[in-house]
Amino acid sequence: MAIRNLILATIVIINLIIISFGIIFTPQWFWLLLIPFPLMILAFYNSTQTRHAILRNYPLLGYFRFFFEAIRPEMRQYFWESDTDGRPFNRRQRSIVYQRAKNERETVAFGMQTDPQTIGNEWAAHSVFPVHIENHDLRTTVGNHACKQPYSLSVFNISAMSYGALSKTAITALNKGAALQNFAHNTGEGGISPYHVNGGDLIWQVGTGYFGCRNEMGMFDEDLFAEKASRPYVKMIELKLSQGAKPGHGGILPAAKNTPEVAAIRHVVPGTDVMSPPAHSAFNTAEGMMHFLQKMRELSGYKPIGFKICIGDKQEFIDICNAMLTTQIFPDFISIDGSEGGTGAAPLEFTDNLGMPLYDALSFVTTTLIKFGVKKHIKLIVSSRIVTGFDLLKVIALGADACYSARGMMFALGCIQALKCNEDVCPVGVATQKPQLYKALDVQDKYVRVAQFHRNTLRATVEIMEACGFKTLDDVSADKFFRKVDNINTWSFQQIYFKDTGKLVNSHSAFEPQEI
């Protein structure tokens, strides 16, 4: 109260002095009221309003609190954050993407900055007899016996990011980059936009809202789906059950990003918040899902069909595996998203507290599919914080066949991790629908960076494989990767994730019982 009265008294006195000088000497003094008089009005208003207690007690000084709070993320990132502190990606991770995307020097000097004795530190066992791998274009074929149009998929691809969440220039650059380097681009659940069709192979994701293949009631439309799924650039179809950042919640497209163009692509009302339902309306059981996958397979002309899931209740995935055996319908691939996956907008509780982390989910899915004897039919694609060759090889060691990267590809486009994806004010034009912002993203420059990031990441992956003696991806095994689990012990991924199952030789094998 004393401080508030002091502020009010001070600002009143200043205004009275200026008014007095204007009356006594010259009216020119009145021009000085342009600043203190509005401040006086504002101070008196704040001292009586009831919404902000800090402004009521500190009518003018309280604004400094809001100002410094607003610039806190930038101040932390630019001045106080170390190279290894940032979240969700630290500066070291962001820098390696920028360097590879720009084809610049990517070596580091003077040794490692992380502490190898820190709990959680990871490393791979190299070989004293390194090998040489001629082919750097690492790929896997997706498509089981029921598929008539199998697809040769790169092990490193663009994860699901919809047009609407990302700008038209960002989507265009991503797709042109995929075309240049011959890897796949997942559309995200927002459907196929004109900006997705720039020569790159597409994985068409169909979510609970059935955007792009829905009728006026929001239900799945077989004719619309068949027409789009048959397009030659659509190589695979992914049915989205859930995603890591908001499992069981459904997608969110803020009204500000739902332009008439976006709405036409999705078949929704423009200018409204678009909320994907948490669950699918086309099925509600595991067996129903298998039959729906088969319907999509037939309507697409027997292209590879799979589904995306963030593991929650383990029993539900076991039920899905039982449904595969009961129906004898096997997806061509399963995409696994860890709870650490990213999104433009999600409730805090869903982002931080729901879903299984990627490594636990992937090892569980791998183990379960092999136990059910169905892994031979299904390829596993994973996403969540994969930006380096080491990230990629770690998940392959746990059973993955290929990877997605979303935020890594965004960094290649120039993303600075401003953490404003949900506000439509992305400063580099990646996650916004505002023309004045996204026009700054030069497609001709950025698509080359996307391609270079992909190429250089695969090169780094091959270099690690050579150093570890892995001649092929099938040689990448869980017993060659290690993590410090406490102050004394370092365990292999084999011991951590497959200790109750036996040795996982590679992602296509059965388990061989072995003492660990």
TrEMBL record:
Renumbered to this chain, the signal peptide range is none
Q: Which GO terms describe its molecular function?
A: glutamate synthase activity
Annotated GO biological processes are:
glutamate biosynthetic process
**Where does the record place the Glutamate synthase domain?**
141-470
Read off the InterPro entries from this record.
Aldolase_TIM, GltB, Glu_synthdom
Please list the coiled coil stretches: none
Q: Which PANTHER family match?
A: ARCHAEAL-TYPE GLUTAMATE SYNTHASE [NADPH]
Q: Which family does it belong to?
A: Belongs to the glutamate synthase family.
Q: What is this protein called?
A: Glutamate synthase domain-containing protein 2
